[in-house]
């Protein structure tokens, strides 16, 4: 028994101890501070600056809606060189829009015609019309609408430019103006399908799907849903050039009983007469020669 006890004590005496390391771990002295390279701060700052610049140049849609960029007021003098130059530049942009060029080159292009409503109306009558006169000009409705309508008058689509002077919230086109444009566009679709080519709005229902930003061309689509005697039901929409749905509408138009007594010439000028299919129409309603 004594020999076994001596052997156990001998083995215990030969084991290494960690007392020194334990003492070091229990030391109250703080560890030396870690050094962070200055390059990490520099790269972080450059990254933040990069995100700020990208956000400034290409802000998210929500930021642009809440904080639109400032714009100058509409040009008051429509005969000034500045106004004329603005309108001409917009017309050039309109005629070069890919969507318009594509429509003119589609296989069924000969089944459609183009026209510019109000462009041929006399100036003394146009001045007191809402969209043809009072709202016409740079920063508002700078150009007459360009209409591409099917020759059977079953449908049409209309290109309109909306300026910054027709906004409710800054940078967002007023919903009332969009309702007016749809009323007139749907009305045109209905008028050409009525016996006397004239009617009045009986009902108009709209659904606003997304904010409509100013300073852009939009597409108004219209089509006939039903014709019954002196009544025509039509539907349509407003989209941006990328096809995003902005507003939807349905309406019914009725030909009044006194329609035969109305001035058909003025109504025809508001609707717009078909222009030569081989020459794109200019903003003044005349065929372009260059």
Question: What labels describe this entry?
Answer:
single chain; 290 residues; alpha+beta; 20% strand; elongated
Task: Write a structural description.
By secondary structure, this protein is an alpha+beta fold. It has a seven-stranded antiparallel sheet, covered by helices on one side. A hairpin with a 4-residue loop joins strand 6 and strand 7. The radius of gyration is 36 Å and the shape is elongated.
What is the element layout, followed by pairings?
Elements: H1 2-14, H2 19-25, H3 38-57, H4 61-66, H5 81-95, H6 98-105, E1 112-115, H7 123-126, H8 130-134, E2 146-150, E3 155-162, H9 175-191, E4 200-208, E5 216-228, E6 231-240, E7 245-254, H10 264-271
Antiparallel strand pairs: 1-2, 2-3, 3-5, 4-7, 5-6, 6-7
Percentage of residues assigned to helices: 25-40%
Tell me the radius of gyration: 36 Å
| Largest sheet composition | 7 strands, antiparallel
Instruction: Note the beta-strand portion.
Output: 15-25%
Mean pLDDT: 82
Strand order in the largest sheet = 1-2-3-5-6-7-4
Low-confidence stretches: 19-23, 285-290
Number of helices: 10
Secondary structure: number of strands: 7
Query: Which class of secondary structure composition applies to the elements?
Result: alpha+beta
The string of secondary-structure elements, in order, is HHHHHHEHHEEHEEEEH
N/C terminus separation: 123 Å
The rough form would be described as elongated
